[in-house]
Each structure stands twice: as C-alpha cells, then as structure tokens.
Design brief:
Mean pLDDT: 96
Number of domains: 2
Number of strands: 20
Radius of gyration: 21 Å
Strand content: 25-35%
Largest sheet: 9 strands, mixed
Low-confidence stretches: none
CATH class of the largest domain: Alpha Beta
Structural class: alpha+beta
CATH topology of the largest domain: FAD/NAD(P)-binding domain
CATH architecture of the largest domain: 3-Layer(bba) Sandwich
Order of helices and strands: EHEEHEEHEHEEHEEEEHEEEEEHEEEHH
Distance between the termini: 32 Å
CATH superfamily of the largest domain: FAD/NAD(P)-binding domain
Helix content: 25-40%
C-alpha cells in the first residue's frame, strides 16, 4: 500500500513525485523501459515566459526561479529571432508584439544568423531573454530527488486495469498489483485512455504530432551562439543543438496516442519553408523524429481533482509547455493533494481545475 500512485514517467509525473514524496509515499508507474520516453524525451525545450495563454504564463512566471536557481539552474542564454517574408508584414507585427519582441533591421538579424536570405527575409524581430532549457538535466534532477525521497519507480509497467475501492485505488500491471489512496493521471497523450480505464469521464484531450530533423551546422558555421529562429505564424523553427542544427515544420497534426515518428512529406514541406529564408541548402538529414504535444480543448493545463472523484487527480494537457511550467505545476498538485497553502492565486487554480469543463 502506498499513499499515491502516479501513472506516467515524463516530466509531469517525475516532478510531481519529487514534490509530493517528502510528505507521502509515492509509487510511479511508467509503461516504457525508460523514463521520459515520449514527449519529454523529444522536446526542443526552451524557456519563453510569455509563451502560452495567460494561465500558462502564470505557471511559467512561477517556474522561472526554479529553472534559474535550483540545482544550479537549467537555463542558458539563447535569444529568439523571428523572421518574415515581404508579404507577411501584418502578421509579423502582431506576432512580434504578442511575444514582446523588438523589430530589428535585416542587417542586424544577419549578425545573429549570417545565412539569412537577403531578399526573402524582409522583416526581423529579436528578444534576448529567451533561454535553452536543459530538459535532460531537469528530468534527472527530479528523478534523483524522487528516488532520494523513497519514490518507488517501476518502468515496463503498463497499467492494464484500475479499480476504485473503498480505500482508494487498486492498479494492475503485467507483473504486479498496487494499491493507493490517491491516483494521479500524468499519462501524457494517454490521459483520457487512463481516465476511461478508471471509469472517469475523459475531458477531451487531443495529441498533436510535431516532426523534427537534425542537420549538420549550415555551411560549416559555428552555430552555438545563434538564437532560436522562428518563422512568422509558426511556419517552421530552427535552433542549435550540440553542434548541429534542428529544424521543425511546426505542424500540429491531430493524431491518436502512439509512439510518434516523423512524417516525411510534412517534414519536407517544413524544410522547404525554412530553406526559403536562408542561403545554405540542406543536403542531408542526420536524424529525424517526432513527438506528441497533448492539449485540453482550451489549450490550458488541467491540474487538480476530478469533478466526480476527489481521489483521482489530473496532471495533464502540458502541450508545448511541459518543461517550462513543470516546477509550478508540480508544486500546485502537491499543495492541492497535501492541503498546503497555495502559492498561485485562487483564480489561476480554478482556471487550471477540471471544474471548468462542467
């Protein structure tokens, strides 16, 4: 018997386990052989505190101190450069304003990224206070804390059955049965499937696939100091990655939960959109992959007890905000479960709760 079972070993489940475990016994169940296998292991993690809607931004703001200071911090300077074609002026101005970016000349932009096309790149905007987020380090930090606090982590433990009992929950995996008072659903793209298994009404989460490609540094340049680069209207993005360069078509293809892979046609179209804005051709892909970004219907995370069962908690709908919001999200679910004072305003807590879907 344990106090709390967490289903899901990505950044959501691991951070929740680390935050709760000093005060309660926790068992974490992960289907895959490795933690952080799906969305968490495939993220081009960045920290832009103004990314997301107003409620997501509240979580970002509340997470910044942890990202900056805890365990030596996980942020490093990167900056963001947005570029647009001549016909995209109106959209460019709106997006630059939305993300608090300052318009700069294309000559200045080429100082940041020297391969920008001289005519196709008609407008540029920049913001310096955007950071690389070391996703692997954050995952490892939370995993270490969880284990030190006695969390029992079981990989290769797909939940096959979950039953509500008088005392809480009984959860069955292929090799073992677990019981707990509280169950936290942090199953990423599979959260609605887990809910159905638990006889809890699903909330309508939708996974969206996003593809990525890695290429050699364009033109042999040292890309280590280049900013994150974004096409207006999220037509593509690119960023340095360990001496190479990664490019995404930024697609949001609705799919069923699965072990995602890159769509060759979508990837080719996105790479063509990127290529239009630069002078260096793409000659060969080193690697490609895809991940799932799972959203609630209103694009806001769901954190808190289910409307019909106070022993079933949602920690879901992280979408593209999972890493940057993890410190605040995990603290919030711990405070809700343990009955501790809330560090985020009541209005925000309500906006994150499942009750908004009643």
């Amino acid at each position: 018997m344990t106090d709390i079972i967490i289903i899901g070993g990505g950044i959501a489940g691991l951070s929740a386990a680390a935050e709760i475990s000093p005060f309660a016994s926790v068992t974490l169940l992960e289907t895959e052989p490795n933690l952080g296998y799906h969305a968490s292991g495939r993220s081009a993690a960045m920290f832009l505190e103004d990314y997301g809607n107003s409620i997501v931004r509240e979580l970002n703001y509340a997470s910044k101190d942890h990202h900056t200071n805890a365990d030596g911090g996980v942020l490093s300077e990167r900056g963001i450069l947005m570029v647009a074609r001549p016909q995209e002026r109106d959209d460019f101005v709106g997006e630059a304003t939305k993300f608090g970016m300052t318009e700069i000349s294309t000559a200045q932009a080429r100082k940041y990224v020297p391969i920008l096309h001289p005519t196709n790149t008609a407008f540029a905007a920049y913001r310096p206070d955007v950071f690389d987020l070391d996703a692997d380090r954050l995952l490892q930090n939370y995993t270490t804390k969880a284990r030190m606090n006695g969390v029992k982590i079981h990989t290769k433990s797909q939940v096959s059955k979950a039953t509500k009992t008088k005392s809480g929950w009984t959860v069955q995996t292929p090799s073992q049965e677990f019981t707990a008072t509280i169950l936290i659903n942090a199953a990423g793209a599979w959260v609605d499937e887990v809910a159905k298994m638990c006889n809890i009404n699903p909330l309508g989460f939708q996974p969206y696939k996003r593809s990525m490609a890695k290429i050699k540094a364009p033109g042999g340049h040292d890309v280590s100091k280049w900013p994150f680069m974004d096409g207006v209207n999220e037509r593509w993005y690119a960023k340095p990655e360990a001496g190479s360069y990664i490019i995404s078509p930024s697609e949001a293809q609705p799919v069923a939960p699965h072990d995602a892979w890159a769509d060759d046609m979508v990837l080719a179209e996105g790479l063509e959109r990127y290529s239009e804005m630069v002078t260096e051709p793409i000659t060969r892909l080193e690697h490609s992959w895809a991940g799932l970004r799972t959203f609630a219907p209103d694009q806001t995370l769901v954190i808190g007890a289910d409307n019909a069962d106070s022993s079933f908690f949602w920690l879901a709908g992280q979408g593209g905000y999972g890493f940057q919001s993890a410190p605040a999200a995990s603290k919030l679910i711990a405070q809700l479960i343990l009955g501790k004072p809330l560090e985020i305003g009541v209005k925000t807590v309500k906006a994150l709760s499942a009750s908004r879907f009643l």
